[in-house]
Design goal:
The protein is mainly α. The chain has 15 helices and 14 strands. It is globular, with a radius of gyration of 24 Å.
């Protein structure tokens, strides 16, 4: 770990700081996963080795639970799965994801000990589990999980005390890291990365964490690369400067961020952005019409109305009733227009959902309008190198391309590519896809500038020769929280 070291951060406990000067996009460290599992809800849709979403997966012939892309992935996963496989067969049913992850961690500890590489800076025993801070209602759930864990844990394996099992569940509760699919678009699992647990929070961080799912396509496992997280610098970081990441999405108001951090991670955020309530005024701002500000009473009224509509919209979205989602969003945006500012977070949420669902329903031109508004608002609030901004800009660029607006599409895809080169790096699958998209839109833009009529004629002909397909189903936008609380 030549780029980082552990130190006592004032008011925060242990933290990590830079031992070398680094620049935006540099990787400060990469860390393999100590143990990981697929979420219960994705167990039948995601490879349990590489976390790739697949239409058809091959089921483990022994436990009939674990599923893989192919035999290559199955062989690669066997070392981690073999104890679980026997336990599921013996137990007769599959426990929940928390119990499965705790068991995998225990098996890894029994086999390899608390340190799995020379690069690991801290043992699991030394990490804080916050058991004493857990609310009574969560403590009851924890006791149920421990009871079920003891039923699941094989009698032939080394037995552990209730305190040591509780410690592992506490670590999962406050330090379990969200693992995304191979495209980085949706959280599909949870894992534990000891070094990452040392990186403290800041609402305006100087680093970001990206999951690299590794490469498991080679037939021989000796050519595979491990699943790992990468801590990447967002700005220039000087020697001795503390490394920080954002545990929660900055788009929330400072009081909401502080509440979430206290509830989920058991600390009071004292960062400058929370202390000074930076940008809270913009996030709740009213519009200006012809140079005149909308009265505060009107802004408050539409803000409260928007909150109620967001609840209705979320319910319709969960039910996959996308026409109802569009209806609710359109009704709400009409009320918000010329009342809420373009940085108001409730208006941004409506624009984001509306653009995504309209794209799914193939109303591309209307979707492009809202995606453009969304990105313009995001750019006034987020750090210029924020991963959420990069992903939103990418989505907006693709939407404009689908709408045939090639000039705006290429411009947005180039902006997204510049951000993702910093946050994800050049080898991440999503960056590679974006690079291919950037080259394609650049070629189309040259054609467009040479002759608009020929460009649109060729585009229409190409689209007619392809069967009409639905876009991928809308999912929750991005991965807003690094760590997962049950």
């Amino acid at each position: 770990m030549e780029n980082v070291e552990v130190f006592d951060s004032p008011g925060k406990g242990r933290g990590l700081r830079a031992t070398k000067e680094v620049w935006a996009g540099d990787v400060l460290f990469a860390e393999p996963c100590f143990a990981s599992v697929v979420f219960d809800s994705f167990a039948a849709h995601v490879c349990h080795n590489c976390f790739r979403r697949q239409q058809k997966l091959q089921r483990c012939g022994q436990c009939r639970f674990a599923q893989y892309c192919d035999r290559t992935c199955q062989r690669a996963a066997w070392e981690e799965h073999k104890n679980e496989c026997a336990a599921i067969k013996s137990h007769g049913k599959v426990p929940n994801e928390n119990i499965r992850l705790a068991a995998r961690i225990m098996w890894r500890l029994d086999k390899d000990g608390g340190v799995i590489s020379d690069l690991q800076l801290i043992t699991l025993d030394d990490l804080e589990d916050h058991i004493s801070d857990i609310p009574e209602i969560d403590l009851k759930e924890l006791k149920v999980d421990i009871h079920n864990f003891l039923d699941y844990w094989p009698r032939t394996c080394k037995q552990h005390t209730v305190d040591s099992i509780s410690h592992i569940f506490g670590l999962i509760n406050c330090n379990g890291f969200m693992i995304s699919d191979h495209k980085g678009l949706q959280a599909v699992g949870v894992g534990l990365f000891p070094n990452l647990c040392l990186v403290n929070h800041d609402c305006w961080p100087n680093c970001t964490v990206i999951l690299n799912n590794g490469n498991h396509s080679a037939i021989s496992t000796m050519y595979h690369t491990q699943k790992r997280i990468e801590l990447r610098a967002l700005v220039k970081i000087t020697v001795g400067e503390e490394l920080t990441v954002a545990y929660v999405d900055y788009l929330n108001l400072s009081e909401d961020r502080k509440r979430m951090l206290k509830q989920q991670y058991f600390f009071d955020c004292t960062c400058d952005h929370c202390t000074n309530k930076t940008n809270d005024d913009l996030k709740m701002a009213g519009a200006e019409v012809d140079g005149v500000k909308v009265p505060d009473e009107k802004v408050k009224e539409i803000t409260e109305y928007s909150q109620e509509m967001l609840k209705k919209m979320e319910k319709a979205r969960i039910d996959a009733n996308y026409n109802e989602v569009v209806k609710i969003c359109r009704e709400c945006t009409e009320k918000q227009e010329n009342v809420l500012a373009d940085t108001h977070i409730y208006q941004l949420k409506m624009w984001s959902t509306l653009s995504e669902v309209l794209s799914y329903l193939q109303f591309f031109e209307e979707a492009a309008i809202y995606s453009r508004k969304m990105v313009d608002g995001y750019m006034k609030l987020y750090n210029p190198n924020n991963a959420q901004l990069g992903m939103a800009t990418m989505r907006a660029g693709v939407t404009h391309w689908q709408a045939g607006q090639i000039e705006v599409a290429h411009s947005m895809i180039c902006k997204a590519y510049a951000i993702l080169m910093v946050t994800h790096g050049p080898t991440h699958p999503i960056t590679k896809d974006l690079e291919a998209m950037r080259m394609q839109t650049e070629m189309e833009l040259r054609m467009f500038k040479q002759n608009e009529y020929i460009y649109h004629t060729m585009r229409e002909a190409a689209l007619k020769n392809q069967p009409v397909q639905m876009m991928s189903e809308p999912i929750e936008e991005g991965i807003k929280s690094l760590f997962r609380k049950k």
